[in-house]
Prior knowledge:
By secondary structure, the protein is of the alpha+beta class. It has three domains: about 5-70 and about 120-140, Ribosomal Protein S5, domain 2, CATH 3.30.230; about 70-115, no CATH class; about 155-285. The chain is about 60% helix and about 15% strand. It is built from eight helices and six strands. The protein has helices spanning about 40-55, 75-95, 100-105, 120-190, 200-210, 215-230, 240-260, 265-285; strands at about 5-10, 15-25, 30-35, 55-65, 70-75, 115. The strands form two sheets. Strands 1-2-4-3 form a four-stranded mixed β-sheet. Strands 5-6 form a two-stranded antiparallel ribbon. Strand 3, helix 1 (about 40-55) and strand 4 (about 55-65) form a beta-alpha-beta unit. Helix 6 (about 215-230) runs antiparallel to helix 7 (about 240-260). The N and C termini lie close together (about 5 Å). The model has no long low-confidence stretch (mean pLDDT about 85).
Amino acid sequence: MTGFGKAECSNGNRKITIEIKTLNSKQFDLIIKMPNAWKDKELEIRNELINHLQRGKIELFITLEEAVEGMTMQFNETAVATYYLQLVNIAAQNNIPLPSDVLNHILQMPNVLICERNDPDEKEWQIVLEGIRQAVVQVNSFREQEGRAILEDISNRIKFIETYITEVEKIEPQRIEIIKARLQQNLIEYVGENTIDQNRFEQELIYFLEKIDINEEKVRLRNHCSYFTETMNDGDGTGKKLGFIAQEMGREINTIGSKANNAAMQIFVIQMKDELEKIKEQILNVL
């Protein structure tokens, strides 16, 4: 959702600069800073931006510069006279001589020089609107470039998770044998080898191994990875959906971790969690 666009246009002696900045946000959050003359166009601007930018924290800046020859300037004679009389009175009351350049000082006072600008008309607004559209095109071009980089990064991280699932599968047979041997050794230490009922032990072992079986979690996690990639390649407007899929991936990874009972397998679970967290961070940039 991060982007930047700028457009410049003109209407006679008036130069108009339009800048649009976008950042990540779950909603459409618009801030507009522009001359008061166009305040009544704010709703039209909002509709224009929401149609093309969809969501994000969006800042729109419109500045207007007018050449001196395009402005009508005149002195406010009343203000000049008022300032002069007040200075004369203050000087007389405090026995202070007036400086010879008193007029220069008065000309620097507020509201002495009046600049009258021509009010913008509908023709000028159409020029501004076209400038906004040009800036939006640049923003979306910027977003597309960033999106391609994000797509590549997320795709690589999904592949890493799928690779870690394969590594977990390689460890699984060894894990089962280690658990079986550990349980049998513990049982021998507690009750003695000669008193073990092998049939009962096998039954309990099968029950325990079923509880820590992770085949379903692996299948679901692989399916989530495939669905994530498929959804990611569908196009725009998938950010929230990708977030939901990532949550489901996290549940399966956590379940595998809770059932692992194996240090080597836990290492791959941690690596999957790390990749998933980075994916979630990147999803915040996706519309």
